[in-house]
Amino acid sequence: MMKRNKMLTAMLAAALAFGTMELGGAAALTPTGTTMIARVTGATPAGETLPNPNQTAVNYNVGGTDLGIIWDKGGGQYFVAFGDTNDSAGNWSRSNVLAISSDTNLANGLSFDTMIQSSPGYAKEILSSKKINNDEMTVIPTAGVTVGSRSYIHYMSVNHWGSSGRWYTNYSGIAYSDDNGQNWTKSPTVKWNNNTSTWDSHFQMAAFLKDSGFVYMYATPNGRFGDVYLARVPENGMLNIGDYRYWDGNGWQASESAARPVSIGVTGELSVAYNSYFHRYIMTYLNEDRQAIVMRDAATPVGPWSGEKILVPGNFTGLGQYNAFMHPLSNGGPDLYFIMSTWYPDYNTHLMKATLTSDMLGDNPISDPSFETQTATPVMAPWYVTGEGGIDRNLGYARTGANNGYVRNGSGWNAIKQRIVVQPNTNYTLKGWVKTSANNTEGYFGARLPNDGAVIGETHFASLSGYTELAVPFNSGSNSVVELYAGLWANGGTWLQLDDVSVTRDDNLVGHAGFESQPTASLTSPWYANGNAGVDRNLGFSHTGANNGYARYDSGWNAIKQEVFVEPNTDYTLTGWVRTSSNNNDGYFGARLPNGGAVLNETHFAGLPNYTQLTVAFNSGNHHSVEIYAGMWATGDTWIQADDFRLTKT
Q: What keywords is this UniProt entry annotated with (predicted)?
């Protein structure tokens, strides 16, 4: 993507081999057997035997380029967008080019029908840029999607390149085409402006996912070292910036500043897709710290996302590879085809293939939970060390598999740690297996705020002569990111070893289920109102705790509701506690499709003078989210109070 800003460091090997872990949960995915299928762009260098069906250097004067963002444009064709492009003589004259493909047999390569051209044999730049350093050096596509007959590209305006893996953007925006990609218009209003002093906007690079009537936009700051954030917009609202809503960890808000991470960095060149064969969402990107292309997966578009699994090890080609833009043809089976870029010595793109297999890691958000992808004795990302520590590799010290983490020192605080994304105000359990030296007296295992922040849950341990499972329950509070750690205060040659770490979330899928985290008397994300509804705060009306939700009015439909993300074709049970005014005779508690859609199941209730638990069982059908609700049709001054919602898989 960035001809002056590629992976310049040597690539490190990483083999994917997880220890046996009893984590349970939903089936998750592991990529295996990654291979290079064919060249996509550029001329065939001397000695290369890969197929090169497009011969772009000869046919389109594209000697070098990168990215290869693929999306379904309809009509049996696919767009493929590329970044900074040079000609056959090595001149960097274009910031981006675009190909069209109808090839459905990827086993022997990806063939183009054509590239968008300004003259015969010359692929044209589709999005202009000033090409002035520290102003607008280039404009590069980062995502694409087609809705109806209109296609959209998310792009970034690069102010200047920085050190390896870092660049700085003026803004990102949306461009659209109504003529099959021949001409593109940059929307003057749909932009996410960057702060050019702090460069910290969360929405500068993106990946699009079209799902259930929305376009989901996963985004990162400029460069390769940010977390992943999420917005969505109705399909017909792509060119209305006011229609975008931002995920705050529990629900959707209109303010971009409310966005919280859905996945932890280090993230570069992101791609996201839904695989209908496995019923899992897949996220791929370059982790510069691990110097590998990695993959996460999840049961819903908002997560929780699994820990990273290595898709392309760092030393796979020795060419400085980055990005894994998934082909939509991969979305219905176990074969994952994607376009990967290389930087050295040949700045171009290649078609890759991996096979996805089910694993038992479930939704464990910890990356490399058994340390099996660590390829050097010093600890490597995604694990980090305070004090002295590293990896015992093939030394026979592991609980399972070949490797374990350790810390060892004569004095001070020494810990091995990793950050993960959590849902705010949610209960979790951290587990891990620890053993120590006989002289350990001050060991701690727990969760805290990042960068050695305030502890939110931990357990103390002394000497553990054999691997012992430790468990720490914690509540995330208002936080979206926490730091997990195992450490000790050393007192002369003290050590601990750590293996097989996991985090599980409470099985209740309802956010703010008891309304205790609602900050005001008005319903706030993730709760919303139909008609007149709000929160009774500290009024003594709750079933438990201090707060409850309510709806009250003299006419019409009035309800408390929340969108909850679920797994398709899965059985769920919804419960909640409700009481009403004596004149209520038309109340409903249940689950339906979002935005007042079809009811999946509900129960009717009349007057309930005391809190009564209501229960509704339903199947999610072919849907990724549902709306739970408690409401009533008011006649005169009618009210309901609701508390302690719970939604779990049956």
A: Signal
Check if the beta carbon of residue 258 is closer than 8 Å to that of residue 246.
Answer: yes
Count each helix (H run) and each strand (E run) in the chain, helices first. Answer: 1, 41
Contact 372, 18 (CB under 8 A): yes
Distance, C-alpha 88 to centroid of its chain: 37
Distance of CA 73 to the CA centre of its chain: 24
418 Ramachandran zone, left/alpha/beta (phi>0; psi -120 to 50): beta
Separation between Cα atoms, residue 369 and residue 364, nearest integer Å: 8
Instruction: Please determine, for residue 513, whether its predicted confidence score (pLDDT) is greater than 50.
Output: yes
Reported as a single tens digit per residue, the pLDDT across 300-335 is 999 999 999 999 988 777 778 999 999 999 999 999
Cα–Cα distance measured from residue 437 to residue 428, given in angstroms and rounded to the nearest whole number: 29
Reported confidence tier of residue 377, pLDDT bands at 50, 70, 90: low
What is the distance between the alpha carbons of residues 631 and 528, in angstroms, rounded to a whole number? 12
Q: How far is CA 131 from CA 172, 263, 573, in A?
A: 16, 33, 57
pLDDT score recorded for residue 464: 98
The pLDDT > 70 percentage for the chain reads 95
Scored b (16 or more CB within 10 A) or e, 79-94 reads bbbbbbbbbeeeeeeb
Q: What is the mean pLDDT of residues 112-140?
A: 97
Domains of the chain: 28-359 (2.115.10.20), 384-505 (2.60.120.260), 528-649 (2.60.120.260)
pLDDT, residue 378, reads: 63
Long-range pairs for 115-124: beta carbons < 8 A, 24 or more residues apart:
115/56, 115/59, 115/60, 115/62, 116/181, 116/182, 117/60, 121/59, 121/60, 121/61, 122/60, 122/61, 123/56, 123/60, 123/61, 123/62, 123/85, 123/94, 123/97, 123/98, 123/99, 124/94, 124/97
Where would I find the H helices in 429-513? none
Q: Tell the residue number behind the tokens 């009618």, with chain if given.
A: 638
Q: What is the pLDDT of residues 618-649, one digit of tens each?
A: 999 999 999 999 999 999 999 999 999 999 99
Mean pLDDT, range 67-96, rounded to an integer: 96
Average pLDDT (243-259) is 97
Residue that the structure tokens 């002035």 belong to: 132
Could you give the dihedral angle defined by the CA atoms of residues 51, 53, 56 and 59, in that order, rounded to the nearest 10 degrees? 140
Q: Which residues contact 567 (CB under 8 A, 6 or more apart)?
A: 26, 279, 299, 300, 620, 624, 649
Under a CB-based contact definition with an 8 Å cutoff, are residues 246 and 252 in contact? Answer: yes
Q: What is the pLDDT of residue 315?
A: 76
Confidence of residue 381 (pLDDT cuts 50, 70, 90): confident
Q: What are the beta bridge partners of residue 153? A: 144, 175
Residue indicated by tokens 């809503």: 245
